[in-house]
Amino acid sequence: MENCIINLKDIVVEYDGERVLNGLNLEIHDKEFVTFLGPSGCGKTTTLRIIGGFVEPKEGDIFFDGVRINDLPPHKRQLNTVFQRYALFPHLNVYENVEFGLKLRKMPESERKQRVREMLELVNLKGFERRNINQLSGGQQQRVAIARALVNHPKVLLLDEPLGALDLKLRKEMQIELKRIQQSLEITFIYVTHDQEEALTMSDRVVVMKDGYIQQIGTPQDIYNEPANAFVADFIGESNIMDGLMYDDFKVQFAGNEFECVDKGFGQMKRVDVVVRPEDVKVVAPDEGQLNGVVNSVIFKGVHFEMMVEAAGYNWMIHSTKMEEPGSIIGMRIDPFDIHIMHKMEDEE
Amino acid sequence: MKSRYSAYPYVIWMVIFTVVPLLLVAAFAITDSSGAYTLENISAVGEYTPVLMRSIWLAAIATVLCLVIAYPLAYILSRKTGSQQRTMLMLVMLPTWMNFLLRTYAWMTLLEKNGIINRLLGFIGLGPFEMINTQGAVVLGMVYDYLPFMILPLYSIMTKIDNSVIEAAQDLGASTPQILRRVLIPLSMPGITTGITMVFVPAVSTFIISRMLGGGGNLLIGDLIELQFLGNAYNPNLGAAIALVLMVLILLCMSITNQFDGEDKEDMII
Amino acid sequence: MKKTSWYSKAYMSVALGFLYLPILVLIVFSFNESKSRGVFTGFTLDWYVKLFHNEMILSALFNTLVIAAIASVVATVIGTLAAIGINGMKKWAKSLVMNVTYLPIINPEIVTGVSMLLLFVFIRDKFNVDMELGFFTLLLAHITFCTPYVILNVLPKLRQMDKHTFEAAQDLGCSPAQAIWKVVIPEIMPGIMAGFLMAFTYSIDDFIISYFVSGPTSQTLPIAIYSMTRRKVSPQINALSTIIFVVVLLVLLGSNIVEARREKRLNRKEED
């Protein structure tokens, strides 16, 4: 088993009497890239701020390397943060921003110079030392923020939606860059985002959260292929989610048809949620699949066409590389292993 | 965050030097010179109703005049471009940097019987007119002294009104009066209310302008208060009662005008 | 660019004429030989010479500058700390403190002046403190009415500041006090300076509050001016007005030039 660096036990947080975290338990391993993923208000940023020391939990314990750090103020914790919108110090230039933490530790100047130079090289900002913060582009500011945090050699780096303010292309570049930095430094990254694609691209493990509860923890593949419930399925990628009835093991009924599936252990005649990914519905000639549907609309999405298809009372989203005319009738086939069965979500019962 | 402790020296200071003094005003207002509780002072304020009404009346006229004069001025200013705008604004605000005593004094020399205006009128065979020591002179002094306080908030709110908003109204068929009534005035409402308070409050409570330009006959409520504390009529209890009435009156007016605008009051005062 | 219409130009001119003509007349008559305020009889600089030998004016000027300097510095320190504290307060506490802060600003000055007079007299009489009205009471009063202006200048800067900057400093190893000193103060410096300047000018300019809390021993310039206007005679007051006007004009022009230069420099930097 990998070494556990951060351990959250039964964490409860309340803001003005409202619970934002409900008894959260989480172990984060050394040198892993963990992402907290969820819609706004799910508690992901609060969890990060607890680790950083900016929020005090009402109940529960935080352990860092096995030591309880509940009462340790932020400036004494061995971790650093890359803040949303960077929080760079506008009165200092690039060099002075990066040097800030080292200066506080009274490190001799020659060593400071060395460390800052290394860091600026790592984030590809060599030659920008004397630049003013507001002369930098968003992407460059982002890099300064990362360098400023990493120069202190923290064991853990916290990143709070660090790419949120960047445009799409830059965001993709920085995702790769961050992963590269994490792997080359071999430290733990804890990353907060509401962007599921970002989470899947970079993480070793993803923690999906909603309303202060953890919904699922797993590798990106687990989360995508085996979502624990309809919320996760819907949040991660696009999904067709339908009410279904589990007849028995490997037999499920939904959309007015009976399908074979690979799930078992739900019991007999049990109400379930059925999730089918848009790319898992295969378009075939009419009457050659399990269902027939009428194409309502088609949008070209670059790699594929996104179609809305009316079939058996549901409006299906289907991704296909072949274009179908709106109004035409198509056949639809779904393979057993592409049908994901999950328990009805508790809060919807 | 524990940073709120750094406000404690200020909080203590304000309690001693703002809250306690105002409580003292209230305490003096309801006691007599020996310190016994009485409502006599408050009821005595009623005797000065004519002075109170005169103060409110003159200040109200001055405020309306300021608004009427300042509104077009602020609009013209706000439509100018960068450097021109800054120069013009500086020109408008420059006189306020001179102490208002000197500005009021200037009008004293202009309006008096042997003053310049009467001299000039004399050349064309008019006058001399009795201009100083009239209510008109007091209103003039108020308008002159406080006009910039009206221009500034109006100007700062109007710079935030984009030209395209006015053009859009024109495009939709609004005439100039309609634009004024349906677009400009609603959008500049916070500036109007701030301007009104910033002119009305000092105008209604002044004792300098009335004394320098109004002579002895046009006593205002400010004069009345001053007389009770530093003048011959020495009676701090009555003075406190009048001050209390004035303060309550103004706070009431403020809370009414506050209904009209939102949060950005503080940027306007600065 | 649309051309400004003739009537808006005319309106501007009339308004500026209204604002400046009285001041212009004051200035012209400061050079008048006779004491008449209606007829210009000949050019002289006598009134300026007399002004510079007027003990009352000179000591009042000195008092004004000393009080303004001390009051504005103290108000800036108290006010800046207060703004930082207020910014971190809970909503109800913040609105309570801000309402008290607005009191001296929205209250008629005469009420503030009277209330402070009552306080000083009360302290003297009830606690037998030997505190005569004069320099010290003036100073206390000036600090009191200056501090809110510092707060109102600093608070918006604090609000504009990225709320995570303070946390970022702590994250990098600053104690909360260090974080305020090393990061927050430098960032809100423009607001602090603006507040300081505003406090300084308001202190120099204040008449009404000073009038109530000053004693016979310690006058400020506005109080001296007031007593001069009561005597209604000497054109020294015109000379004084002229000097004040010129000083203000030079200061404003100077600061505008500095400002314009800085803007230009900033623009140039951005083009790099």
Automatic annotation (TrEMBL), chain A:
ABC transporter domain boundaries = 6-236
Domain of life according to the entry: Bacteria
Asked whether the keyword Nucleotide-binding is assigned, the reply is yes
Which InterPro entries has this protein been placed in?
A: AAA+_ATPase (IPR003593), ABC_SmlMolc_Importer (IPR050093), ABC_transporter-like_ATP-bd (IPR003439), ABC_transporter-like_CS (IPR017871), Mo/tungstate-bd_C_term_dom (IPR008995), P-loop_NTPase (IPR027417), PotA-like (IPR005893), PotA_ATP-bd (IPR017879)
- Tell me which SMART domains the record gives: AAA
Query: Which EC numbers characterise this protein's activity in its record?
Result: 7.6.2.11
Q: Does the keyword Ligase apply?
A: no
Q: Print the keywords alphabetically.
A: ATP-binding, Cell membrane, Hydrolase, Membrane, Nucleotide-binding, Translocase, Transport
| UniProt xrefs under PROSITE patterns | ABC_TRANSPORTER_1, ABC_TRANSPORTER_2
Which transformation does this protein catalyse, written as a reaction?
ATP + H2O + polyamine-[polyamine-binding protein]Side 1 = ADP + phosphate + polyamineSide 2 + [polyamine-binding protein]Side 1
Q: Which GO terms describe its molecular function?
A: ABC-type putrescine transporter activity; ATP binding; ATP hydrolysis activity
Q: Which Gene Ontology cellular-component terms appear in the entry?
A: ATP-binding cassette (ABC) transporter complex
The family database entries (PANTHER family) matched by this protein are listed as: SPERMIDINE/PUTRESCINE IMPORT ATP-BINDING PROTEIN POTA (PTHR42781), SPERMIDINE_PUTRESCINE IMPORT ATP-BINDING PROTEIN POTA (PTHR42781:SF4)
Quote the function comment for this protein.
Part of the ABC transporter complex PotABCD involved in spermidine/putrescine import. Responsible for energy coupling to the transport system.
Q: How does it assemble?
A: The complex is composed of two ATP-binding proteins (PotA), two transmembrane proteins (PotB and PotC) and a solute-binding protein (PotD).
Per the record, the similarity remark reads: Belongs to the ABC transporter superfamily. Spermidine/putrescine importer (TC 3.A.1.11.1) family.
Protein name from the UniProt record:
Spermidine/putrescine import ATP-binding protein PotA
UniProtKB/TrEMBL annotation, chain B:
List UniProt keywords, sorted A-Z. Cell membrane, Membrane, Transmembrane, Transmembrane helix, Transport
Q: Which GO terms describe its cellular component?
A: plasma membrane
ABC transmembrane type-1 domain: residues covered: 52-257
**Name the record gives this protein:** Spermidine/putrescine transport system permease protein PotB
Q: Keyword Phosphoprotein on this protein?
A: no
Keyword Disulfide bond listed? The answer is no
Record field: transmembrane = 7-30, 56-77, 89-108, 120-144, 191-213, 233-256
Which family would the database say this protein is a member of?
A: Belongs to the binding-protein-dependent transport system permease family. CysTW subfamily.
How does this protein lie in the membrane?
Answer: Multi-pass membrane protein
Q: Specify the superkingdom.
A: Bacteria
Where is it located? Cell membrane
What main location does UniProt list?
Answer: membrane
Its source organism is: uncultured Anaerotruncus sp
Automatic annotation (TrEMBL), chain C:
**Bilayer topology:** Multi-pass membrane protein
Q: Report the residue ranges that make up the ABC transmembrane type-1 domain in this protein.
A: 61-255
- Superkingdom: Bacteria
For this UniProt record, the keywords arranged alphabetically read as follows:
Cell membrane, Membrane, Transmembrane, Transmembrane helix, Transport
Q: Which GO terms describe its biological process?
A: transmembrane transport
Supply the PROSITE patterns for this chain: ABC_TM1
Q: Where in the cell is it found?
A: Cell membrane
Is Metal-binding among this UniProt entry's keywords? no
Q: Which residues cross the membrane?
A: 12-31, 56-84, 96-123, 135-155, 237-258
CDD domains listed in its UniProt record: TM_PBP2 (cd06261)
> So what family is this one in?
Belongs to the binding-protein-dependent transport system permease family. CysTW subfamily.
Report what the protein is called: Inner membrane ABC transporter permease protein YdcV
* Annotated organism of origin: uncultured Anaerotruncus sp
Task: Recite the lineage of the species.
Answer: Bacteria, Bacillati, Bacillota, Clostridia, Eubacteriales
